[in-house]
Design brief:
The protein is of the alpha/beta class and 353 residues long. The chain is 38% helix and 14% strand.
Length: 353
Amino acid sequence: MDYRALGNSGLQVSAMTLGTMTFGGKGGFAKVGDTDVAGARRQLDMAIDAGINIVDTANMYSAGASEEILGEAIKGRRDQLLIATKVRFTMAPGPNGHGLSRRHVIEQCEASLRRLGVDHIDLFQAHEWDGLVPVEETLAAFDTLVQQGKVRYIGCSNFTGWQLMKSLAASDRNGWSRYVSQQIHYTLQAREAEYELLPIAVDQGVGAMIFSPLAGGLLSGKFRRNQPAPTNARKLGDWDEPPVRDAEVFYDLVELLVELGQAHGVSAAQVAIAWLLTRPGISTVVIGARTDEQLTDNLAAAHLVLSPEDLSRLEQATRPPLIYPYWHQQQATLDRLSAADRVLLGPYLNSGA
């Protein structure tokens, strides 16, 4: 297992993170998975054996049950693992039962510590933007938790570029703890993060943690053109995370993943994950699975090396369209690109496009 710095921090994290959204199976999360304590211990064993040193959860996964199950599963091996969790979504009734207010952030940190049965959280993340709370209030609350020793590092998730930069500027201006990571959705099927978020990762040292690397199962290789969908699976038109805007382009991508997987003797899923591990600005890819077999397959992607030709074919098949001002910059600035600029525009340097 490769280990990488989490952004500009001194924290070294495994290239893969074990995700725990499948732990619990309560409420709407039942359709994601229902891993119990015994299953969680087994998955942790597999992850640790593979070299994973970080586990990601959230307070709202199965209404706290994911944290509780993880807390039971890590007993006796807390020192082997970094624990990441999140705050933002509804955990109690009333207007103050959600959001990123100082009250909610601190209250939920303490609740997560209790559920996890630990004395500190290694990475505490704002799960989503809150436009009704000043960023200064949120970041001051996070900094308080860091100063108290309850939190080691802070991160964010699902922010836009301007929201992330506004937050970083507020931290820098006030001398507060800075977001060292951003947990984002990014796959071959949905490469929008290349417009702003991955360039910020490179430029500002905010390491990207990639969630749902198989796009909720879309890139597993199970959804093929003119073939029956898996039992009880959603139709492509019903997919909203991420949305499938062009079914034919999607099916072309899956066929390419299957072809490359067969050439390497691995699954299409492993190809999709291995591609992510080559991308700039990425610190770790969060993998979770309903079954031990799925986890075993996903873990194996850490050892898959894609050739330059493989990467070129994947790039050409999924390159995001240049929206403004990027198409203008592509025409006028290719001779003046920084490392951050090259995340999106780099492929155009030698393509003649």
